[in-house]
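User: What would this chain look like folded?
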Amino acid sequence: MYKGFSYSMTGASHIAKNKVCQDSAAHYAAKDFSVAVVADGHGSKKHFRSNIGSEIAVNCTLEVIKRFYADADEFNREFPKNHKRIMRNIERQIISEWNTKVNEHFNLNPVTDEEKSQFTPEEFAEISVESFYGTTLVAAVICKDFTFGFQIGDGSLIAVFEDGHTSMIIDYEESNPANITASMCNSNAISMFNSYYVDNKKIGAVFVSTDGLYTSFGSDLEFLNYHTIIADQISESDAFAESVSKNIQKRTNFGTQDDISLSCVYDEEILKANSEVIKNKIEENKRRLLARRPKPKK
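Assistant: Here's the prediction, encoded as structure tokens.
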């Protein structure tokens, strides 16, 4: 049975400056598939509507994937044979719908004098409508026979396998080549996607998160083990999802102070069946983390 959760927390620095949360997160769990998605609005000067852009990105992603899954049996049959082409089609449709909905929002909500006030007329004329709403996007889909995901911009996509192995399946830096921020608002956005696909490997959970979560950890191992712990405990109690939200809030308050979003979908049966294996992996990770700590000076 697929289940999931998703949370967006306003960063402590944004609260202090009376800024809205630029992140958005959502999940969808159905009989045949489940989806986790997050988006991180850029929030800088020219992206002054990026909180709206991130929400539109999340909603468009869910809508497009649901549409592709309208006939789940056919999709599950065709996807493994043509996953590269189908994933690219999904990405194109998400970009297309995002651009359409961003422009619809702009037409219904013209730029206000207050929004324009931070620019000179010359500066404002150089900014595209899409840039007002600039955002990243990370999404993952899990079903019985395969898992896939895609990402544009920073953020993380994590998978927890049945053997307890936890992997950052798209490298954190991959989606920002040559120090260029990949964004949904770029004219060549479709070429900036990174994607992931695996079949015939049982995955218990997939997580997607915005960069505020990754940067709140001291190492990749700590970050990965955090997800392994969640995968272990989430199957034991639905109430655990609420405690995750509290932990995320602590991480922004005492860590990066950035907005943080985390979305997860998981196969409850796989996680429960492999609970002992996953617990053993957590203990192994703890030993590795302890071994890395500097020894006290004599």
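Residues 83-108 form the longest helix (26 residues). If you want, I can go into more detail on any region.
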